[in-house]
Amino acid sequence: MSVSTPKDESRKTAPQKNGSGFNLVAYVRDVRAEAKRVTWPTRRNTLITSGAVLVMVTVTCIFFFIVDQLIGLGVRGLFGVGG
């Protein structure tokens, strides 16, 4: 059994250039053009998202601290070992 790709979904390859080496000027121009197309978040969106991440990290740390303490308490109660 062979797998074939439909004609309308054929792979597109980057055009091959007949030059040799790397063109730094063209690369920088392409990077700048691509950066202009990026939708950058506003300062407010960045602050809100960063705050949400910090809150979730704090909640997660507290949760795992409590779970760790409960597991340690259980191990000490069952086996009598540990601090």
Automatic annotation (TrEMBL):
Pfam family, one: SecE
Membrane topology: Single-pass membrane protein
Principal cellular location given in the protein's record: membrane
Annotated compartments: Cell membrane; Membrane
Keywords for this protein: Cell membrane, Membrane, Protein transport, Translocation, Transmembrane, Transmembrane helix, Transport
Membrane spanning residue stretches: 46-67
Ranges of compositional bias, category Basic and acidic residues: 1-12
InterPro entries recorded: SecE_bac, SecE_sf, Translocase_SecE/Sec61-g
Region feature (Disordered): 1-20
The organism's place on the tree of life at top rank: Bacteria
PANTHER family: PROTEIN TRANSLOCASE SUBUNIT SECE (PTHR33910)
Family, per entry: Belongs to the SecE/SEC61-gamma family.
Subunit structure as annotated in this protein's UniProt entry: Component of the Sec protein translocase complex. Heterotrimer consisting of SecY, SecE and SecG subunits. The heterotrimers can form oligomers, although 1 heterotrimer is thought to be able to translocate proteins. Interacts with the ribosome. Interacts with SecDF, and other proteins may be involved. Interacts with SecA.
Task performed by this protein: Essential subunit of the Sec protein translocation channel SecYEG. Clamps together the 2 halves of SecY. May contact the channel plug during translocation.
Official protein name in the record: Protein translocase subunit SecE
Gene: secE
